[in-house]
Amino acid sequence: MSQEKLLIGFIGQGFVGKSIADDVESRGFEVIRYSLEEPYVQNKDRIKTCSVVFICLPTPTTPKGFDDSIVRSATALTKPGATVVIKSTIVPGTTLSILADFPDLTADDIRACLSFAADRERRLRVIPAA
Ligand SMILES: NC(=O)c1ccc[n+]([C@@H]2O[C@H](COP(=O)([O-])OP(=O)(O)OC[C@H]3O[C@@H](n4cnc5c(N)ncnc54)[C@H](O)[C@@H]3O)[C@@H](O)[C@H]2O)c1
């Protein structure tokens, strides 16, 4: 990662997004929070400044099926080269499908990652490298 200041973005400040953002912030990182609630609603454009972005948005099951369109829209708010961590519930195959939606991405430049939900942990645990 470059020497520029590491900003960590959160799209969605509900149960999941707020829990993780609070924890990351408590570790000394600067976080940018964007959601529909005040005061975060004006931070949409600032997500483009973040090197890592957690997507913590609702993905409802509707009469027409599982709707992950909001995750795709959120991915479009990130800058090229950012690491995107999808915390939203998604069905198998969604990450590859999202990558296919973004022509600037290749298999060697995977920005969309899956992450286990650690929001019920009091603190995220740091797992030492092997
Ligand atoms: N709650 C849990 O225990 C849990 C655990 C694991 C995974 N998940 C998954 O994580 C995701 C988020 O869950 P949650 O419980 O935090 O949801 P939530 O309803 O508590 O919060 C949703 C957040 O998304 C924001 N939001 C909604 N639409 C938006 C938009 N168009 N643009 C910007 N922000 C928008 C809302 O303002 C809110 O801050 C879901 O997919 C859920 O299935 C939840």
How would you characterize the overall build of this protein?
It is built from three helices and seven strands, in the order βαββββαβαβ. The protein is an alpha/beta fold and 130 residues long. α3 (94-101) links the parallel β6 and β7 (112-114). The longest helix has 12 residues, at 15-26. The protein is globular, with a radius of gyration of 15 Å. It starts with 6 loop residues before the first strand and ends in a 16-residue tail after the last strand. The chain binds nicotinamide-adenine-dinucleotide (NAD). Nicotinamide-adenine-dinucleotide binds next to α1.
Determine the CATH topology.
Answer: Rossmann fold
Helix content: 10-25%
The end-to-end span amounts to 21 Å
Number of strands: 7
Q: Which class in CATH terms?
A: Alpha Beta
